[in-house]
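Weekly puzzle thread! Below is a chain. First person to post its structure in C-alpha cell form gets bragging rights.
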Amino acid sequence: MSMLSSFPSSLLLPSSSSNPTSSALPSLSLLRRRFIPWQNHRHLHLFTSLSSSSRCTLRCCSSSMPLQQISISTSHQFQDSLLCSTAFWVSKSVIAWNVDVGIDGSCFLYASQTASLSVTDAGVQGHDVKTNLEKYDGGLPENVIAKFPHIRDYRAFKVPPGLDTKSLLKCQLAVVAFGSDGKCSNATGLQLPGILDELFSYDGPLGAHYCKDAVSLYLWAPTAQDVQVWIYRDPLSKKPDEVGQLVEVNGVWSIKGPKDWEGCYYVYEVSVYHPSTLRIEQCYANDPYAKGLSSNGKMTLLVNIDSDALKPDGWDTLAHEKPSLSSASDISIYELHVRDFSANDHTVPPNFRGGYLAFTLEDSAGVRHLKKLSNAGITHIHLLPTFHFAGVDDVKENWMSVDNTMLENFPPDSVEQQAQIMSIQNNDGYNWGYNPVLWGIPKGSYSSTPNGPSRTMDFRKMVQALNRIGLRVVLDVVYNHLHGNGPFDENSVLDKIVPGYYLRRNTDGFIENSTCVNNTASEHYMVQRLIIDDLLNWAINYKVDGFRFDLMGHIMKSTMVKAKGALHSLTKEREDVDGPSIYLYGEGWDFGEVAQNGRGVNASQFNICGTGIGSFNDRIRDAMLGGSPFGHPLQQGFVTGLMLQPNGHDHGGKDVEELMLASAKDHIQVGMAANLRDYVLTNSEGKEVKGSEILTYGGAPVAYTLCPAETINYVSAHDNETLFDVVSVKTPMGISVDERCRLNHLATSIIALSQGIPFFHAGDEMLRSKSLDRDSYNSGDWFNRLDFSYNSNNWAVGLPPKAKNEDNWPLIKPRLADPSFKPQKQHILAAVDNFLDVLQIRYSSPLFRLTTANSIQERVRFHNTGPSWVPGVIALSLEDGHAGFPGLTQLDQNYSYIVVVFNTCPYEVSFASPALRGRRLQLHPVQVKSTDKVVKKSTYEASSGNFIVPQTTTSVFVEHRMSACV
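Winning reply:
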C-alpha cells in the first residue's frame, strides 16, 4: 500500500468538529483582489477543457445529456470504463462492486489528486495512492442494503483501516480488478454518496448568515479541493470586486466577511473532480442555500430576509390573521399559475400583469373572482412553481410576443396560431416552471424587479393579500429533479458543488432521468436535509401554508415524514407559523428506478398511507372521464357518456360497456368515500367488499388511504386537457353545448361533494379551454388564457401546438371548426354560479368533510348499488346523530340527514330506495335559490323513497333538524 505522504499538505486535513463556528472562519486577511471577468473566464475554461485532445470531448451540449454520450480519446477500452461508476464506496470500510475477481485475482483502489489515472491491460498509471482491497464473501452489511437496495447482491470489498479517506474523496478514484495473470480485467469509477453520508453528514449552518458586524458563508463541499467566493457590488459586472478564500472544516467550507457584503452578489469557484469529464474542474456556482439572486440566477444575492425593510406592514403577525382551518378535511384547493392569473386581465395595470403583485389588487377582475371562491368555501390557492426555474428570462424587456389581433383573425381550426406561438415559445414570458434551478428563491420573472430584493417583498405581499381574502397559499415544489447537470451548464448548481452526490445515478453511474431529467436522490442525507431546509425556508420566511410535491413518489417516504414533522413543529409563538396547519400532498406515482421500493421505501400512493400526507387519486379521475390521459382520446367514462351517449368509439360491445360503466361507478364511489382502503360498500355485483378489494383495470387496488386527508380527489389539473376540453372530445359530436356545460359542472360537483380533499384546476368553474392542448407547459399566454370577465372560455383559438397534439388533430379540427361547440357568456356565468353553489353546499355541513375513517364508514352509505342499479346514477346518504340520543354523535346543527344524487344520464331519472323511505327530505336551500332552473325540478317522495332528478344534474336533499324524526 502506498503512503499518503505524496499528497500536498492541503489535502491532508486533520479531522475536526462537523459544526464549524465563526471562530473557525478565515480572517479578512485571506481576502484578495483578483480581476478576472467571471463569465469570460468561465467560457475560456470551457473552451480549453473541450479543445485538448487528451481531455473529454462532448458529442452534444444539453442539460439532460446522458453521460453515455461522453467519450475519451484513448487507445484502450479500459480508459473508457472510467466514465462509468459501477462500484459504490458505501461505508468507510466497504466498497461494493458487482465483479468476480476469482480465487487468484486481486482488486485495488487508486486515487489521483490531479485526475491523471490511465488504465491499460498492463496496469494503472498516474495514481498517487494504490491500496489493496480485500475480498469479502459475507455480502454487504444490512444497513448498506437498506440504504442501497438496488445493489443488494453486489460483492463486498474491504477497505483497509488507516487510510486518510477524507483526503482520498477529493481525488479521482477508480477500482481495478486484475486476473491471476496480473492483467487488468475490469476497471470503473466510484459512486460516493454512501461514504460521504457516513463521514460528512452535517446539521450545522449553511448558506449566508448575518450578524451585527459580519456576514458569514458556509458551503458543504466535502469533495472540493478548493473553494473561493467572488464578490460583486454590481450584478452586471464582469469582474469581481473581491475574491475570498474559504477554509474547510470536515467538508464544510466557510468564510467570515465584512458587514458591507450585505447587498452584494457572489458566486463560488469550486475546484473539484467531476466524474462526467474525468477532470479537476473550476466550477462556478450559486449558493444552494441562496435567499436571493440576480436576474436569471447569474449570481447569488446577499440578502438578509429577516430585515424589517423586506417585510410588508403586519408581516410579523400574519400567522394570527390566517384564515381559520379546523382540520385538514376542511381544505379545498384551487390550482393556479401565477402568470395565467393576470396576464390577460385588463383590470390589472400592465406592470403588474403576470406577476406576484397582481394578487395584491383589491378590485381586479381576477381578485374579485378569487373572493367569490373564498366566500363559497375554497381554502387554498395552489400556485404552480414559483421558485427560480429555467425557461423564462427574468428580464421582461427580452421577451418576444405575438400580436394577438393577428391571431384572432385566423380561423378557429387554423395551424397558424400554434405556429406563431411556437416560434417564440422559448423566448416569451411563459412556462409552467417545472425546470428547477434553485428551490429557495422566488422566480424573478414574476417580480417587479429581478435584481435586488424585490422578489422577496413582492412574494410576501402576494401571500399576505391572499390570506387577507381568506385564502391560504400552497407552493408547488419540484424536488424530484433539477434542470441542469455537469460542470459547465449555466443551470447546474448542486452538481457543480458536490458532483455525483445530489443527482441519482444508475448502477453504471449515469444520471437517472425517469422524472424528465436529472433525478435527485433524497435517500442521500444532505439531499434530504436540503429539501427539508427549503420547506422550512418557505414556511418561515414566506409563511406558506402547504406544499404540493411534484412526482412525490420519487422522494423517499422517510424524507416526507421528516419534512412533515419539521413543519408541524413550527409554532406561532416561536416562528410566527402555525406548523400543524401546514398541509402536504403530491403525486404518488410509482415508476422508474424507484418503483416497488427500488431505492428504498418511496412516497408512492400505497406507501404514504398512514402519514396524513395526501396523494392525487387518479382512480376517480379516470373512472369519471374514461380511460386515462394516455389512452385513446375517445374512450368514455361515467360522466362522458359511456354506454348512455355513445360517441362511436368501439369499447368492445354492449356487454363490455355495461361492465365498464358498473366498474367505473365502483371506482367513483370508493373515491367519494375518501379512497379508504378499509371502507366497506356494496359493489356492482352486490357483494360487500372493502375499497382495497375493488381493483383497477390493471389489477391494483383502487383504495389505498387510511384517513380522508390522504386523498386528493380531482378530475383535472394543469397536466393534460382541461375538463371542458376532455368532455368536448369524449362526448358525441351531436350533443348541444348546453349538455357539455352541464357535464362539466356535474364532474366538478362529484369532486366537491366527496369525502377527502377536493382539488380544482383553475378555470374548470369557467368552462376553461386550452383549445384542446394536452400539454400547455410552454404554449404561451394564447393557449393558457383565463378570462375573468367571463366573455370567453378560450375555446377554438386554433389547433393546439403540433409537438404534443398533431396525432389528434384529425379529431380536434372538426370540433374547433364547429361553432356550436363554443360556450357563450351565459354558459360561463351559469357554470360559475353552479360551481359556487356546490362549494356552498360542501361547507354547509360538516358531514361532507368528515375527519376520520370510522366516521365515514358509520355515516356515508351508497344506494343504487348491486346488479339491479339504475345505470348512470350514483346516490349517497350522509347521516348525523341527535344530541341526547344513543348512536351517532351530532355534528351538524342544521341537517340530520343528507342525500346526494348524481344523474349523468341525458334524460330525467326516477330512482327509489327503500332505505330512504319516510325521510323528510327537501331540496337543499342553496339549490332552491340557484340560478339553475333545471336542478329546481328535482323532487323526493317520502312515502316511496323515490327521487326524480333531471338530466345531467346533481341534486342535494337535506333533512332539517326541526323537522327530523327522532
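Puzzle host: Confirmed. Bonus trivia for everyone else. Confidence is low (pLDDT under 50) at residues 1-75.
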